[in-house]
Fold each of these.
Amino acid sequence: ILNNKIVKPTPVKEGMNILGSSIHLNTVPEKYRKLKLIGRGTTSLVFELNDHEVIILTRDEMKNDWLQHSNLAQYVETLELSHPKILLANKPVYVLKMPKLFKLDSKNKKIIKAVQNLYDKQNQIRGSDYHTFINRLTEEIEKFFHDQESLNDFMSFISNYDQGQYSFDFLERNFMQDTNGKIIATDPIVSQ
C-alpha cells in the first residue's frame, strides 16, 4: 500500500525475460534498491555494495542458514516485504552481506560437473534410506574433492536436516569462486 493505494508489485525485467524472483524489486527498501542489481534467482536478489562486497536479499531459509553457518555471510537484518502470493508474503526476507564472488573458471566448472555426476549416480541407487544416501554422497565428495572445503562443509551441514526440508540444486550457477579460485557453494539447496 502506497499513499492509500494498493500497489501491485511488478517483476523486474531483464532484456526479454521476466525475473522469477520471490522478491519484487519495487518492494525492496530504497537503501538496497539504489545499489546495482548484479544477480537474481528464484528466491534471491544480489546487489553490489562496493568493489568487494555484495548484499543478498533472500526468502530461502536454508540458504540464509548455510551462508551464515559457513561464515560466508554476515546477517544484516530481516525484512517483511509484500508479495502477491500470500505464502511468499508471509516469509521473511533475510538481508546478508558477503564478499563478492565470481563465476567458475573452466577447472572449477569441471569439478562441479563431476560433483553433479556423483550426485546423479548416488541418487539413482539411493533407495529409501536417505541417511545412507547422504553418507555415501559425502564419502564420495570427500574422496574425490578432499581439497574443496566448501563442498565438504556443505555436506556436513546438510546432514543435520531432514530430507523433507530441502531439495538439492547442484547446478553450476549455484557455485561460485573466490578471488583465490576456491569453489564456494552459494546455493546448492532449495528450502521446501
Amino acid sequence: CFHPRAYVSQFAKNYTRLNGLGTPWKILAYAVEKGGFIMQTIDPVLQKTVWERDLGTASAPVEAGPPPAELLRLLEDECAAATSYRRLSRRLWGRDAALLRAIAGEARLHCQALRAAYYAESGQRADLPPREPVHLPPVPEALLTARNREMEAARDYEASAERWPSLAGDLRAMAGDKRCRAQCLHMLLGRLL
C-alpha cells in the first residue's frame, strides 16, 4: 500500500538532503502548487535533473565517487596537520598546549575517517610513507600558517562535498570542524600576541 503524501514527504526529505533547499515542507508545498503528487518512483539522478529544470537551478556535474588519489591527498594533509599540532603543543604550556593537543586529536579522528573512506573506495589500506620532520617557525608564525591552512582546507572540503555526494555528510562535518579549528587558532594567536 502506498500513500501519496508519505511518498511526497519522503521525496521532499531526500531532495532536501541532496540539495540543501529549505525544509521538506517547503518542497512539499512547491510540489502541491506545481500540480500535485508524483506517483511513480523515479531514478534519483533523473529526479534531480527534473527538479533543477523546474526550479531553474543548475549545479556542477556530480562525480560518482572520489578518486582514491584525491582521498589519499586529503589524508596526507590531515595526518601532517595532526603531527604539526602535536609538535606545536610541545612549545606551549597550560591551556594553550591542551587546546593544540585537542586539535591534534580531532585531526587524527579525521585521518581515521579518511582512511576508512579510502579503503571503501580503493579496497586497499592507506599506508602513508613517514614524513621528514619539518622545522617549525616561531609559534605566532606557525599558528597563522595553520589558521590559513585550515580555512583553505575547509573550502576544499566543501567543494569536495559538492562533487562527491557519497561522502558529502562526512566532508561537510570535517569542513565545519576545520572552520572551528581556524577560529580557535585565531583566538590562540590573539592571546599570544
Amino acid sequence: LEGKISNFEKMKAQHSAVGLSPAKWLNTETGFDAWRLDQERRQAQAVAQKVLYCWAHDHAGIMLFCGRMTRGPGRDGRDLGLVDYQFCPRFAYGAVAGLVSVLQGASFESVIVEKDGVFAYEFLVGEERVVSAFSLSDEGALSFESDASQVMVCDPMGNVVRQIAGGDVELSLDGYPQYLVFRDAESVAISE
C-alpha cells in the first residue's frame, strides 16, 4: 500500500499540472506473487487494504487482478489469484469475502486517519456506522469514542468477536482490516 499511495500522489500531481483535475481512477494493481505461506497472508492483508484505500479516495473501481491462477500443479512462473487452479479459495479470497460481508451496501463517509502507517475509514451501512482500521505493521492501536448505544467488534472475516455497551472502544491493529460496527451513532472519532 505504501508504494500505491506514493504513486497515486505522483499521478494526481501530474494530472493536475496539465489541467486534468479532477480525474477518476480505476485501480488494477492488486496482484501478488504468493508461493509461500507468509506471502499468502500478506496478499490477503494487502488486497483488502488496497480495496479500502481506493474506495476512500473515490476511485471509480478496482479490478482484483488475476482472479484465478492459470497454471496447474507442477507449474512454473508466477502464482497469483484469489482462487487456485482447482478454484479452491485462497487467503486473499477470504479477506475480500470478509470485507464484502461487513461493507455490502455501504457508502463511504470519511477518512478518520491515514498517518504513520495507521489507516481508519468510516462507512455508513443502513443506520449503522462501520469503521474499518488496519496498520501497515504488525503493531498498532486506536481508541474510538462515539455516542453509539452498542459497538460490535468484528474480525477480518466479519465475525462479531465481542460486543460493548456504549460507544467507546480500543482496537489493536495489524495488517488485516478489522471492523467496528457502531449502533445508533451520530458520530465516531478517535479519542486522544
Amino acid sequence: LYKNFTDFINPSIDIVEGVIIDQPKVAVSDIIKEVSLLTDLLINDDQSVEDCRSYAQILINKYQLQDLTIFVREFIVMIRDMKLTLSSRHDFFVYIKFYNLIQLFLSINDEYLDYVNPVIDQFLLAMSDISGIDWRIKLFEQLPEFIIRICLDKLSKFETISNQKQRNFYCKLFNDFKDNLDHKDVKNIKFAF
C-alpha cells in the first residue's frame, strides 16, 4: 500500500513535447547487467573508444539521473577492482576507453568525480612502474585533456597526502611534468597546466 502511494505521488513519467511517457523504474540487477556489458566492451580490444562512447550514450539516454548515478558508481567500482596496470598495452587501452567514458559521464554530473578519484589514484600510482619521463609523457598525452587536468590537479596537491610513498611519488611526477613542458611530445599536458 505504501509503495503504491509513493508511486502515485512520485510517478515515473517524462513529458516530451506535451506527450506523457511512462518510464518504468529500473531494477538494480538490470543496472549491474548493463555495467557488465559496458565493462566487456572496455576490455574487448576489438571495440574502439567510439564504440564504447556510443553504447554509454544509449545508457545515458535510457536512465534517469538517480539510476545513472547508481550505474556510474558501479561501473567505476568494477573498473577499480580490475586493478589495471600500465605495464600492459591492453590495460592501458582499457584506461583510455574508461577515461573517455568518464569524461562523458562527468559532463552530465560532475559529482561523479568523487567516485573516479580512487581510479585516478590507481592510475597515477601505476605510473611508478613506467621508467623515464619520456614514456610517462607519452602515456599521459593519450588521455583526454579533461582527465589530464584532473590528474595534474591531484598531483599538485601532493602535500595533503598522508601516505609518504604516495606523496613523494606525486611530488616527483608533478615536478617532472612541470619541468618538461618543452618536451617534444608535450601538447595536452601544457594546456592542462
